[in-house]
């Protein structure tokens, strides 16, 4: 592979400066144009140690306006990062729409070095590559321009670069000694690099291999690739394919027995029992560093809030974070819709409780026309992939949809209007959404059909009786934690 790419032609200083002047002007103009679009630009700078990655990133910041660029480095992973799913650290650093994010050290670094050093096997490495390709596809499908640059140098050039810099490490130390750990492993690193590129090379997000032997050539070539990638997207924006219509879903909601109920006496007894159990399990999860991610969805007036209060009443406040989800802010709208959920995930051993969640994309946003058909249909796979990442990290996932019938919802809406201390709970939007009950019902059934998986199954909760619903939710949480912890 590395013998087939375009070899560099050394540039003298005068030629470099002449070409750089024009290139810099063009890059600046493309950057300003991108700012007016909904397209974030993600530039991954990867390659062998000693290939000049850091110098190239410095040059890109010099050529373009650094106020619209965020350079991200991942020299060492902090405790905050290690105690969350792998891609959490990268989701948090994604650029907003119209901005440029440069990743010097990226999602590629850890699996590549781990395979070189023999810490993982080939099968695990391939799985990591598949997860990376999924991550990049999700971003590109949402409009991101992903530009992946791989800088290649010969073994002699790498040795010279590392040995020349090594004596100065005490006077001018790097953030980490890691770049020197691969000295003497050039061929192994090259073989792994080729596997990495082949396993993550896609038409949508291709790699660009650059001969980095000559610094001037390397910088001009990288700048030209970035300029060409941005220009082509601006001139020919991607038109998402129209997805086929989904077949009618199964009627999962109709299978929920809404007659289930508990007497007040049984409710109090069972609530005490399962709250005590959940309290113990939450502390055991903390000791085992297993996180709980719980999603609460349901009809307006179904009792999500009161059910959540019974859950939080059983867990030490130090062990959970409740995340209420409303309409996205301007900052959240400037990112992929999953961004605002990824960044809320708590550390290992703690619980993240979502009052509404990423499922808004396939319910509210779908029904209200806030997401195009190709966006909400694509979201089924994206959500399953996200939840798969959480499960792979060891998170325990629990998803609840509280179901009530239309008569019960009407009764609760009317009660809210009559009682002064509940009037804040009812809005004109609640009444308007009620008129779209059939559309929401279809959306919920399709959501359950396409996103109930082995590691993240849906629990449809009969909610006409609030006592039953609360106990059912806490009991289900206890069972999910028990299966994971014992």
TrEMBL record:
**Coiled-coil intervals in this record?**
none
Q: GO:BP terms for this protein?
A: polyphosphate metabolic process
Which key words tag this protein in UniProt? Transferase
Q: What is the lineage of its organism?
A: Bacteria, Pseudomonadati, Pseudomonadota, Gammaproteobacteria, Cellvibrionales
Family matches, as Pfam families: PPK2 (PF03976)
Annotated ranges, domain Polyphosphate kinase-2-related: 11-233, 262-483
PANTHER family, per database record: POLYPHOSPHATE:AMP PHOSPHOTRANSFERASE, POLYPHOSPHATE:AMP PHOSPHOTRANSFERASE-RELATED
The name on file for this protein is: Polyphosphate:AMP phosphotransferase
GO MF terms held by the record: polyphosphate:AMP phosphotransferase activity
Respond yes or no to whether keyword Transferase is given for this record: yes
According to its UniProt entry, this protein's organism is Pseudohalioglobus sediminis
**InterPro entries listed in its UniProt record:** P-loop_NTPase (IPR027417), PolyP_AMP_Tfrase (IPR022489), PPK2-related (IPR022488)
């Amino acid at each position: 592979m590395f013998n087939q790419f375009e070899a560099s032609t050394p540039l003298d200083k005068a030629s470099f400066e002449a070409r750089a002047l024009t290139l810099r002007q063009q890059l600046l103009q493309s950057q300003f144009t991108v700012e007016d679009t909904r397209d974030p630009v993600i530039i991954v700078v990867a390659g062998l140690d000693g290939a000049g990655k850091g110098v190239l990133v410095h040059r890109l910041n010099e050529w373009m306006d650094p106020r619209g660029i965020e350079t991200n480095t991942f020299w060492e992973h902090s405790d905050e990062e290690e105690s969350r799913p792998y891609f959490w650290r990268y989701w948090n650093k994604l650029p907003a729409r119209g901005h440029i994010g440069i990743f010097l050290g990226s999602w590629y670094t850890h699996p590549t070095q781990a395979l070189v050093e023999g810490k993982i096997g080939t099968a695990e490495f391939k799985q990591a590559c598949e997860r990376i390709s999924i991550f990049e596809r999700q971003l590109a499908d949402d409009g991101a321009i992903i530009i992946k640059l791989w800088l290649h140098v010969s073994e002699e050039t790498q040795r010279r670069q590392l040995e020349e810099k090594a004596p100065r490490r005490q006077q001018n130390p790097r953030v980490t000694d890691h770049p020197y750990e691969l000295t003497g492993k050039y061929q192994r690193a090259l073989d792994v690099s080729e596997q990495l590129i082949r396993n993550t090379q896609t038409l949508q997000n291709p790699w660009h291999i650059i001969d980095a032997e000559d610094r001037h050539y390397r910088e001009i070539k990288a700048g030209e690739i970035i300029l060409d990638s941005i220009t082509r997207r601006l001139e020919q924006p991607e038109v998402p394919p129209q997805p086929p219509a989904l077949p009618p879903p199964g009627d999962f909601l109709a299978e929920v027995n809404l007659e289930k109920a508990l007497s007040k006496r049984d409710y109090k007894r069972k609530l005490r029992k399962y709250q005590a159990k959940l309290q113990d399990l939450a502390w055991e999860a903390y000791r085992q560093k297993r996180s709980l991610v719980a999603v609460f969805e349901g009809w307006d007036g179904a009792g999500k809030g009161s059910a959540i209060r019974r859950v939080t009443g059983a867990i030490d406040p130090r062990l959970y974070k409740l995340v209420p989800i409303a309409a996205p802010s301007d900052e959240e709208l400037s990112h992929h819709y999953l961004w605002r959920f990824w960044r809320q995930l708590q550390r290992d051993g703690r619980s993240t409780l979502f009052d509404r969640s990423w499922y808004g994309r396939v319910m509210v946003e779908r029904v209200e026309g806030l997401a195009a058909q190709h966006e909400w249909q694509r979201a089924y796979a994206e959500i399953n992939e996200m939840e798969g990442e959480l499960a792979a990290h060891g998170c325990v996932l629990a998803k609840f949809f509280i179901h009530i019938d239309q008569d019960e919802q009407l009764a609760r809406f009317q009660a809210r209007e009559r009682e002064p201390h509940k009037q804040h709970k009812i809005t004109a939007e609640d009444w308007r959404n009620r008129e779209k009950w059939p559309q929401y019902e279809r959306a919920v059934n399709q959501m359950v059909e396409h996103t109930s998986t082995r590691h993240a199954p849906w629990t449809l909760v009969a909610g006409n009786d609030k006592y039953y619903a609360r106990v059912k939710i806490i009991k289900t949480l206890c069972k999910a934690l028990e299966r994971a912890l014992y």
